[in-house]
Amino acid sequence: MTTAPSPEKPVERLHAVLVDLLYRQSRAVLLANLVIPWPVAYVLREAVPGRQLLIWIGAIYVLTAARLLLSRQYFRRGEEDAEPETWARRFTILSVLSSLLWGGVGWIGFVPSEPHLIAFVCIVLTGMSGGALPALSAYPPAYAGLLIAMQLPFALRCLAQEGSIYSVYLAFLLCLVCVYLYYSLNAYRSLKETVSLRFENQALVERLERERDRATAADRAKTRFLAAASHDLRQPIHAASLFTASLAALARRGDIRDVEAKGIADRLEAVISSLGGLLHGLIDVSRLDAGLVPVRRRPISLAQMLCDLREEFMPQALQRGIALRVVPLDVWADSDPVLLKRILDNFLSNALRHAPDGRVLIGCRRRGSAIEILVVDTGPGIPYGQHQAVFEEFVQLDNPQRDREQGLGLGLAIVRRLAGLLGHPIGLRSAPGKGSAFSVRLPMIAPPALTHASPRRSETTGRLRIMVVDDDTQVLAGLATLLAAWGYDSFCGADVEELCRRHQAAGARPVDLIIADYRLERDLTGSEAIARLELYLGYPVPALIITGDTSPERLRELTATGHRVLHKPVAPERLQAAIRETVLDEAAPASPA
Q1: Which of 159, 344, 391, 443 has its CA 20 to 30 A from that of 49?
Q2: Which residues are bridge partners to 525 per DSSP?
């Protein structure tokens, strides 16, 4: 089996294998150099002095020994030895020198008075040239050098003689050289294609093996993921059912006190919030895996971002008794500010959670043309064997009891996906008892030219008017009550026709926002309902779609609508923030009243 160095570039790797073939296939040529000189000398013994023939044979044997030694050194070389091109040049030099000696037969054996010797020499040179063709075709310069060196002396002797027979010999020789070169190039192309095909097959096998390993690992990860998710979903649902049953029992008893009701409601709200956080985390993972998170790169002032993070996390650090230190650097980086901030938020949240009464530092340092942001804490540290595991879903080394107040174990899994999406390498240096240092590396860029920012459009001062379409009557009633409590005017309906009738009955006033469930009756989707409502209104309206679907295919469909999407269960504060942002950022020009 052919063995050769494996350079990184495919062309270099191909060249290395062809040089290896050159050395391996030249063994037959070397054997011919040891055997054939004797019968040639025997035939020429009467026309050429014996001493001259012996010197010729000795010279061929010396060069053959040198070539054998070179071949031995080649096969014993280390990976750090000379490049394949160097070995090919060494082979070619010795091959050309040996061919010149064989070409000497065409000079000393060219005896015009002995035509049969000229014919014999011609046969010998033709046979040696043809015999070397398959062995040296792996490296065309080597074969071309052999052919020219072997045939040139005979051609010169033909040119020096007068007579038509020598012109015939010369013409025959030229045709022979052309034919041999042609077949040599064809053989070279065939070898290249064969070796390239072998590389492709090897690459295909390796790729299939990697895909098999990746599929196996993904299957194991999916099993672990579903088991952990199932546990973490069941717990809050179980707790919520217990609190609901308790509240119902107190209500049936008729003597429920305000303090008891508020306590149970507060606990129920905390459980629902925990459940919503878990579901939103799972949706984020699904969106990232499906490639549905858009990346909007722009220049970012890391000094400003780190200062903003200090203002955001300082109260939490003071509450936990942690000394939070921020070391900003006045540099700019190229990234998505929202996604980068989410990575750093997760790093800081983990650091503050794991370093009570300790110290946390976030800062930057230059790494060539890149900038590295580090979050360092004095927490318990992470064993080296667990460095990869902490970036997996639901992995919490310090929370084996799965206490939801300590997080869900999805933060670093989302960080890993976000970093891969942005192309920012992340790192972890940690050891037990020595704290942890999480890092993310970004491309550094020159500060952008100053521009005058356009003023942000202020929020509408009047009451927002919102259309709501949802075929679930309980959800519809709940949304109507909540929107009224926030001071919004709402028009609600289980389908588009009902909603339009109610809007007409209320005076057909202009609408600022549409909220639609994605799955409606009669296989109507939320985006289709929004389109029908806009057609009814006669102008485009910003819209929100609320859905419980989490499959990658459905997420792609929702992303393609261009509308903002919220996933059930939607926390009230999240819904209110989405309403404000959608109306301010996406609203079309106001329609006439």
Answers
A1: 159
A2: 519
